[in-house]
Amino acid sequence: MRKFINTPEKFVDEMIEGILSAHPDRLKNVAGDLRCLVRADEKKKGKVGLATGGGSGHLPLFLGYVGKGMLDGVSVGGVFQSPGSDQMLEVTKAIDGGAGVLYIYGNYGGDIMNFDMAAEMAGVEGVTVKQTVAGEDVASAPKGQENKRRGVAGIFYVYKIAGAAAEEMASLDEVKRVADKVCAGVRTMGVALSPCIIPEVGKPTFEIGEGGMEIGMGIHGEPGIRKGKLTRADEVVDEMMGPVLKDLPYRRGDEVSVLVNGLGATPKEELYILFRRVAAILKGEGVKVFKTYVGEFATSLEMAGASISLLKLDDELKALLRKPAFTPFFEQLAF
Q1: What would the pLDDT profile of 249-286 be if each residue is shown by its tens digit?
Q2: N or C: which end of the chain has fewer CB within 10 A?
Q3: Would residue 304 count as lying in a domain?
Q4: Is the dihedral angle over the CA atoms 296, 309, 88, 113 positive or is it negative?
């Protein structure tokens, strides 16, 4: 293991200390807990609060999307570990402006259990909480079993669009409706070229053979749908895009946003080569690209690989996607 760390046990807390030191105008911690983070600006009374949470190792997920136009707070777990329900509760109380709080998080067992507990405890303290669980990875469960799918990079769209709705002072029911609508319209497929090393483990937790790839691997190393030799970029994209396009399905005349996401060790040059093929496929299918995002949005430490997400859009979602957002890891002007 070759990493810029002091001790594995301090990896997460020292990372958060660094982020707080770099962005004191954007983020602050609450309840005396480094792992409970909220926006540093003044809380807006009557605004729905948006909270997320999840394991470390996925920057800019999850804490990177706390900021104006997106999330209001986040609870941070250990590497690939869920944060605790008490931490989620502290964030909930800190961001509640009287209009309730929406939890947005990925479809993983530990997160579901702890967010459910936090929501119950928040209710006892008089805070209304609703929940949206994101799960759009088509490789993780077949069509008809969408409730079993993992949440991966496509959750970015839920943060962005629900955040825009909340910033416009929509009600809790409306913000949840929009968040759920995004979840219903986004699909993702990933591919991994190398494993990653959890600092406290000190060695790869899985292996991908030399010159190999795994189509559909999850962001924690969950099994994909096919292992094999790495092929040409266009062939990889063809294999990923087929299941994504068929699943919803996306049809001729649809408008979409495309997210090509690097998993931690893939250069942007390669991501744009992948997008080049995505754009060609969509053009051939008669699907119009409204907005493109290329970069690192949900990583897995130093894993090499990428994922492709498509979000089907309508006028409502396009209007919200256009809204500005400003976080330590993501900035977008209105367009």
Answers
A1: 999 999 999 999 999 999 999 999 999 999 999 999 99
A2: C
A3: yes
A4: negative
